[in-house]
Design goal:
Chain lengths: 180, 480
């Protein structure tokens, strides 16, 4: 990857979620695609405006759960039937009803860990550095009470002056350049 | 209440929401900034209240009971406890079940109420989850130390070893290991994932470099990106969906420890549901024990309102009735089964040498709470609820005592009857775990966000998105 230099994008700051959603919808309508909203709590309408609907987190979770149930059940069977067979009051070695309980627990364990770590991996976290943190006003509001829209320079529609004019038609508190 | 006429009595109490007639979930007049400042301020302040140091010291001091008790236990063996034959299970298992049960309300609040879209839970779910984790820590101590040779406790896990020895999966004790370790892991993961956005807030609002670094690392670089939020919400919902069957299964598995044994008083199919209901009952009592002093000392009455206390008291009433049904069914089955042993067990439980414990249990778990919780006046009476929460947890401890001890000490053969008497070491370790719990909880309220800020923001009226780019208040002013 070539070293990144110069401008990452333009960051507009809004006071209310409604203003953010409106600006995002208009930007999408104008043809911008490489953009992202930053909000202090999940704003579903912003995701709709970005046309971001589906996540792969449930799939990762399902695969984790299937792996958990298979691992636990096969492990129990192998241990109690082949690796270390014990006669416990004459019960069959392959006592599958009893094996269900640890298998059930490991289904949940693997699925839960997959959901949590899968979510972090799909989000690319942990990532302690990100260009938006360079904006002077970002950390003051993005995790507290302000709503941000970033139009990224990687978008073919992006031009410093044109995009700035576009963003300034909305009631943004500020529009600032974000450097890499 | 849409047709409110002038004839109607005005609602005097400003804490009551006039639209619903219920206490408001969050007191009016808050905005994104004020809730953030209020919650983050508790963590980021440089003026730690003196009372916090005092509480931490008391908790830490009492927790020394665990350290001293366990040291002596490891030196001398389980003989220092009151366990003997026939009462081979004593305080260790009673305390284990009691603590795990307390933890269950945390998961119920964070998971089941999330699935049911009970947004009022947002104010209390973080410290309820913390309570779960610390309760599991206290609970987990007991099985580890009661195995007799605690330095070999890792033999419980299936791991390849040179002895070629493996666990035996037909035993409920092996199921316990899986259930409790999964429960602890998933609770910690759920708790941590829930805190990531709040760590981001703390990182951005911290002024001390050490705090910025500490919370910055914990936040993993969270920046509130919408795509992240959507995946995050999806993962939270999945974790909630997974925790719900998990929490029900954990106490079910623990009840199997008893129900699988062929002993009168234990060998019963009602145990799983009745254990789960009892767990939630005692857990909500513990949430109330913690919430009432916290909202008072940190002035969080706006965020943890009377609505929360009222709702929690209602849950206690519901689960308390299930528990009462369980007790009733035990007595009924002792008669209906026509089993001599079952009948004697129940008679002995009520009128035998330890009958007093059964009546303490009925008084504290059934009579006092289930006659008073019907009154809304008492449900929102903070002092009464606080006292009641202690009464219920005493009752729940006695429930486990009654189940464990009074079933064991007089079983089938009168020649093998005995008694059970706890020693000072039993009491020391038990009281010590309460200190450990307090100590951990004091650390939690000082260093971690005890109310989820991002979820509280979602409950504010300002979150309403209107199309056309205007915020909610402007629109309503124009239309009026």
């Amino acid at each position: 990857m070539p070293p990144r230099e110069g401008i990452y994008g333009l960051l507009a700051e809004f006071n209310t979620p409604s203003e953010l959603v409106y600006a995002t919808e208009q930007a999408r309508h104008a043809g911008y695609r490489r953009m992202e909203c930053y909000t202090p709590y999940p704003v579903e309408e912003a995701a709709e405006a970005l046309h971001f609907h589906t996540t792969r987190v449930p799939l990762v979770c399902l695969l984790g759960g299937l792996m958990g149930v298979t691992t636990a059940f096969l492990m129990e069977t192998w241990i109690n039937v082949w690796a270390y067979p014990l006669n416990i009051a004459g019960r069959p070695l392959f006592s599958w009803p009893a094996f269900i309980i640890p298998a059930y627990e490991w289904t949940i364990l693997f699925a839960g860990l997959s959901a949590a770590f899968g979510m972090l991996a799909l989000n690319g976290l942990p990532q302690l550095y990100h260009p938006v943190f360079n904006a002077p006003n970002f950390r003051n509001g993005a995790t507290t009470d302000k709503f941000f829209l970033c139009l990224e320079a990687a978008d073919p529609m992006f031009s410093l002056d044109g995009t700035r004019t576009f963003l300034e038609q909305f009631p943004a508190i500020s529009v600032v350049e974000v450097d890499h | 209440m849409a047709t409110k006429g002038p004839m109607q009595d005005p609602i005097v109490d400003p804490r009551i929401d006039p639209r619903t007639g219920e206490y408001a979930v969050i007191a009016p007049g808050h905005n994104f900034k004020s809730v953030t400042q209020k919650i983050a301020g508790i963590v980021l302040t440089s003026n730690t209240p003196l009372g916090w140091f005092f509480g931490l010291m008391v908790g830490g001091g009492v927790a020394m009971g665990v350290v001293i008790g366990c040291t002596w236990l490891f030196l001398k063996g389980v003989g220092i406890w009151g366990v003997t034959i026939p009462g081979a299970w004593g305080f260790a298992i009673i305390n284990f079940v009691w603590w795990i049960g307390i933890g269950h309300a945390g998961t119920l609040i964070s998971a089941i109420l999330l699935l049911f879209k009970q947004t009022w839970r947002n104010s209390i779910n973080r410290f309820a989850e913390a309570m779960t984790i610390f309760a599991v820590v206290c609970a987990g101590t007991f099985p580890l130390i009661h195995v007799g040779r605690p330095w070999l406790a890792y033999w419980l896990f299936p791991y390849p070893n040179t002895m070629n020895v493996w666990p035996q999966f037909r035993s409920p004790l092996a199921w316990d290991v899986f259930a409790v370790s999964t429960y602890a892991t998933i609770s910690i993961v759920f708790w941590y994932v829930g805190m990531i956005p709040d760590f981001g807030t703390l990182r951005d609002r911290a002024t001390m470099p050490a705090a910025k670094y500490f919370y910055g690392m914990l936040s993993m670089g969270w920046r509130g990106s919408t795509r992240h939020w959507i995946r995050y919400e999806s993962a939270s919902l999945l974790l909630a969906g997974l925790s719900t069957p998990l929490v029900l299964s954990v106490h079910t598995v623990i009840s199997f420890d008893f129900a699988v044994a062929a002993l009168a008083g234990w060998h019963t199919t009602i145990f799983p549901p009745y254990f789960v209901a009892g767990a939630i009952y005692s857990g909500f009592a513990m949430v109330i024990t913690l919430a009432i002093p916290i909202r008072k000392f940190y002035h969080l009455e706006d965020l943890v309102t009377l609505r929360h206390l009222d709702n929690m008291a209602k849950v206690m009433l519901g689960t308390g009735l299930i528990v009462a049904y369980g007790y009733g069914m035990e007595v009924f089955m002792a008669w209906y089964s026509a089993s001599h042993w079952e009948f004697f067990m129940m008679w002995n439980r009520m009128f035998g040498p330890m009958g007093w414990a059964y009546w303490v249990l009925i008084l504290t778990n059934i009579t006092i709470p289930l006659t008073t919780l019907w009154s809304r006046k008492l449900r929102v009476n903070v002092t009464y609820l606080f006292i009641l929460s202690f009464i219920i947890n005493t009752g729940m401890w006695f429930e486990r005592f009654v189940i464990v001890v009074t079933s064991l000490y007089r079983d089938y053969l009168p020649s093998s009857w005995g008694t059970y008497r706890a020693t000072k070491w039993d009491y020391m370790i038990y009281v010590g775990t309460m200190g450990l719990f307090t100590f951990l909880f004091f650390l939690f309220v000082r260093f971690l966000p005890m109310i989820p800020m991002s979820e509280i923001r979602m409950m504010l009226p300002q979150t309403k998105v209107t199309h056309g780019g205007k915020n909610a208040e402007t629109v309503s002013e124009e239309s009026a």
